[in-house]
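ping. complex inputs:
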Amino acid sequence: MLALFTALLVALVVGILGLIYGLSFLHNLLAIVLVTALAYMLIYYSLEYFIYRKIKLIYKSIHQLKTQRTDPSSVPYFGDSSHDPIAAVATDVQAWAEARKGEIETLKKTEEYRKEFLGNVAHELKTPIFNIQGYVNTLLDGAMDDPEVLRHFLQKAAKSADRIADMVNDLEAISNLESGRESMELEFFDINALIKDVFDSLEYMASQKKIILDFKEGCNYTMIVEGDKYRIRQVLANLVTNSIKYGRPNGKVLAGMYDMDENMLIEITDNGIGIAPEHLPRLFERFYRVDKSRSRAEGGTGLGLSIVKHIIESHDQTINVRSTPGIGTTFGFTLKKG
Ligand code: ADP
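pong. complex structure:
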């Protein structure tokens, strides 16, 4: 377009000059046509050679960056001379800038999340470490001479050491799940038998609070599902343990199984303290606790539900929670039917 416009301008000048110098109409017309064609070709090829080629090179680099290809020969070069390289570059740069903006936002969020997470880990580890320091130093300062105090403080120090070990184990589990280092080992198994197995292993803990572990009516039947059995056991153990920890003494923890065509919905319900609605959206976040002191008193790390969510999402399935304070809580997750 630019070449044609300039060529026409030159032709106009030539035409005027022809008129001034008194060229005949035919000669003038011939001169105009010749000069237009010549000027067009000259300008077009100059532009192509000196400007468009360089723009195309820039475009090529951007395109390469966008596609993240390292082999330049694999990036198509748009050598079509009818193409408008300036418009193409403008569109591409804009799209590229927008994509980068999105990436920068995500990176910023991840960075904030990382900082917050590090802060949380340090904060959570501080308490049991300080406790151990306190008990050990007090013992060394002379308290160990009293066998009764010695035993008591050592027990307390051991409990704090257990908390640190639990937290490190949970952090390792999250890190492994997030990095995908340990892949899911899918197999077919009976979910009903697995729930019974988990109930059996937590029977003692439940009996301490006189809580009954059972199935909801009509929900106690064999059902084969597909999943990583070891990890689904972890999920169930975590949910049932929470139901007992935050459950009502003399209460009930009930398991439900519901057929949803392709999937099974597994629910663990308690009639415990419940959770206020404002806490529900953040419940699966790492270290999020509704009642921090109660969670710590129960020996919780605040990481259990985030591990549970990770495991279920690694199965491409979903987990949800509904709860009413003072009435109880239900956690439900889906699994593919076998
Ligand atoms: P924790 O180790 O503190 O139990 P979780 O990640 O397992 O950590 O749970 C996060 C928080 O969710 C708990 O601190 C508790 O406040 C709340 N919670 C989990 N399960 C229940 C439940 N069944 N009833 C009431 N509150 C619950």
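The chain has nine helices and seven strands.
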